[in-house]
Design a protein that fits this description.
It is a single chain. By secondary structure, the protein is of the alpha/beta class. The chain is built from twelve helices and twelve strands. Strands 2-1-3-12-11-4-5-10-8-9 form a ten-stranded mixed β-sheet, with helices on both faces. A two-stranded antiparallel sheet has the order 6-7. Strand 8, helix 7 and strand 9 form a beta-alpha-beta unit. Helix 1 crosses helix 10, helix 1 packs parallel to helix 12 and helix 6 crosses helix 7. The longest helix is centred in the first third of the chain and has 19 residues. The chain is globular. The two termini are about 25 Å apart. The chain binds 3-isopropylmalic acid and magnesium ion. The site of 3-isopropylmalic acid has 5 residues, from helix 4.
Length: about 375
């Protein structure tokens, strides 16, 4: 029996997780999937509840789970909360506590959605790339950090971009292994023309490359990588990069596929335990309106079945069902173009469940 912890979180999180839950529920009822679903609070709602964005109880459940599916955290009502207690801190601590150093963010274009991309359809045709983002190091966690007073009234903010060789090595290993299973091209993104930490990054990635001679390795500066992603994204197969660069580049990559509302992600710790979350965030502007796209959350559940639970066939079923509903022309507002009518979050989730049940009847 696999233990799965659902953390709906804030904003549109609860709405999209409700649809992922429907899909997992269907697999339990109709396919006998051996999943046990539990629920807990994280982020702003946890802070409101008990003053901590990552309560002890939630952390204990997460540690005991085989996988966690998280909706989103954060919202403008928490902007004035002390930094240590902000919703985002709950997510960052969860990543750190579970040692989730590898963040996989695929950007895949559904052919029917080429018109929703911000790029011309011919530039994104066939797009299928994977960003491997280091998730527990770099500027996000580096010490020292803070805001200090210099002389007089002048204050100074500071963070530290730091990576040791072992942190670079384990994420590079992961990226090469993923590249091996794909088109065997890895592009490592850094800022080695300016930063010492990037110089070391490059050296270690080169060293790890010797274990994977069948993968071709290239290096790119991050500013150029941002440009290349919008100029000719199809040149990429797997992109490996550090935490902050990966945060930025993965939002760019997301937009190329038409909507950030479609993109799942996996955060892994090297022991198959993982946190799965949509890339889109809490979208407070549309929360509670039944307008969010639940497909990223549903596809995150599929990634979980593949990467943490060893159920690739169930993952494929979900992905196939998502392709089917998109093929049928069903669209939430984020991916609707021209005057086509859009549907709500719940209706989209129901459509995926219906597509799954049609598969069952065909088999
Ligand atoms: C992401 C988000 C997070 C990050 C925030 C919510 C802390 O932007 O997952 O990309 O910066 O990592
Ligand atoms: Mg981000």
């Amino acid at each position: 029996m696999h233990k799965v912890l659902l953390l709906p979180g804030d904003g549109i999180g609860p709405e999209v997780i409700a649809e992922a839950r429907k899909v997992l529920g269907f697999l339990i009822d109709e396919h006998g999937a051996a999943l046990e679903l539990e629920d807990a609070r994280v982020g702003g709602c946890a802070y409101e509840d008990c003053g901590d964005p990552l309560p002890e109880e939630t952390l204990a459940l997460a540690r005991a789970a085989d996988a966690v599916v998280l909706g989103a955290v954060g919202g403008p009502q928490f902007d004035h909360v002390e930094r240590e207690l902000r919703p985002e801190k709950g997510l960052l601590r969860l990543r750190a506590e579970l040692g989730l150093f590898a963040n996989l963010r695929p950007a895949i274009l559904f052919a029917e959605l080429a018109d929703a991309s911000s790029l011309k359809a011919e530039r994104v045709a066939g797009l299928d790339l994977m960003i491997v983002r280091e998730l527990t190091g770099g500027l996000y966690f580096g010490e020292p950090r803070g805001i200090r007073s210099l002389e007089g009234e002048l204050r100074q903010g500071f963070n530290t971009l730091v990576y040791d060789e072992s942190e670079i090595e384990r994420i590079a290993q992961m990226a090469f292994q993923i590249a091996q299973r794909r088109n065997r091209r890895l592009c490592s993104v850094d800022k080695a023309n300016v930063l010492e930490v990037s110089e070391l990054w490059r050296e270690v990635v080169e060293r790890v490359h010797q274990e994977y001679p069948e993968v071709s390795l290239s290096h790119m500066y991050v500013d150029n990588a941002a440009m290349q992603l919008v100029r000719d994204p199809n040149q990429f197969d797997v992109v490996l990069t550090e935490n902050m660069f990966g945060d930025i580049l993965s939002d760019i990559a997301a937009m190329l596929t038409g909507s950030i509302g479609l993109l799942p992600s996996a955060s892994l710790n090297g022991a198959d335990q993982g946190l799965y979350e949509p890339v889109h965030g809490s979208a407070p502007d549309i929360a509670g309106q039944d307008a969010a796209n639940p497909l990223a959350a549903i596809l995150s559940a599929a990634m979980m079945l593949r990467y943490s639970l060893g159920e690739p066939q169930l993952a494929q079923r979900i992905e196939q069902a998502v392709r089917q509903v998109i093929g049928e022309g069903l669209r939430t507002p984020d991916i609707v173009y021209s005057a086509r009518q859009s549907i709500g979050t719940r209706e989209m989730g129901n459509a995926v469940v219906r597509a799954l049940s049609e598969q069952s009847r065909e088999n």
